[in-house]
Write a structure and sequence with these properties.
This protein has 286 residues and is mainly alpha-helical. The protein contains 13 helices and five strands. The longest helix is centred in the last third of the chain and has 24 residues.
């Protein structure tokens, strides 16, 4: 992205996100993250669809490239991006050797990774060796959503017992302001909501220190983060409604109202379940 900016004139417009994603062979999520970094570094001014170059990149803007294999978290992200970006259907055979070259990780690491996903019901080992994708079916989405409700309601109950000096209270105050700020410019920046949604739910769940819960939350976070990119119908309206639900939930927690906090959580999580199912039905892996 810095190379693209370096080849442009000041005042020029960066291409659309889809064009940038195709040009760099990455997902739109990665493009948006890069654009946010350019915007925060004051290299571009990002206003709605306009991404104006306001100064040229300098050497200090570049990140050092670290040699070595992907971490487990990076591998998970790359794998799910591959599935969701290309709408990989259930039943697809997974070529471990190809993934090893594509992701730059040893074959044995991929085998361990896929074995972990098999315990979550996402992939299955073939009788004669190899793996195939079970896919993101409606049944999978329903089970995942129901489990998410259990985990996040438990997180809310634990959160409300924390002392005033705990860091979560300041996090929630900051998140409340970030939601209000996005709400004020949502018409132009509604595509930013998926990142804020991930940040909000991660904060809620961060109060639970349980290794089994943390493992499940990684999958839940990825699926619910990416589903915002699957179905673009009524995206502005859906994100506006979700912001209001988040704010209702945050305000109830900050008021230390257990009943209202749980009610707000259930309201939002039930709606998220519906939108996830709608997103899946619009794709061939449903």
């Amino acid at each position: 992205m810095l190379d693209i900016c370096g080849s442009m004139d000041i005042g020029g417009q960066l291409p659309a996100e889809t064009v940038l994603a195709d040009r760099m062979d990455v997902s739109r999520t990665i493009v948006r993250s890069a654009l946010q970094k350019l915007d925060s570094d004051k290299l571009i001014r990002w206003e709605g669809r306009n991404k104006t170059l306001i100064r040229k990149p300098e050497p200090e803007h570049r990140l050092e490239v670290e040699e070595g294999t992907l971490s487990t978290e990076e591998l998970e992200q790359r794998f799910f991006e591959w599935i969701l970006r290309f709408d990989v259907p259930a039943g697809t055979a997974l070529n471990v050797a190809q993934f090893s070259r594509q992701f730059g990780v040893p074959v044995h690491n991929l085998q361990e990774f896929l074995a972990g996903l098999s315990r979550l019901g996402l992939v299955e080992r073939r009788p004669r060796g190899g793996w195939f994708l079970l896919g993101f079916t409606s049944e999978f989405a329903i089970e995942l959503s129901d489990f998410r409700m259990v985990l996040e309601l438990n997180a809310v109950r634990q959160l409300l017992t924390l002392p005033p000096e705990h860091e979560i209270w300041q996090k929630l105050e900051t998140l409340k302001q970030e939601h209000e700020d996005l709400k004020a410019v949502l018409k132009d920046r509604y595509h930013d909501f998926s990142l804020l949604d991930e940040k909000f739910h991660s904060a809620i769940n961060s109060v639970v220190k349980n290794r089994f819960v943390l493992e499940a939350q990684k999958l839940i976070k990825l699926i619910f983060h990416y589903h915002y990119m699957w179905d673009k119908r009524d995206e502005l309206e859906r994100n506006a409604a979700a912001i209001e639900e988040h704010l209702e939930w945050i305000n109830a927690i900050l008021a230390h109202d257990v009943e209202k906090s749980e009610a707000a959580a259930l309201k939002h999580l039930r709606r998220s379940k519906v939108t996830l199912l709608q997103s899946l039905r619009g794709h061939k892996f449903a």
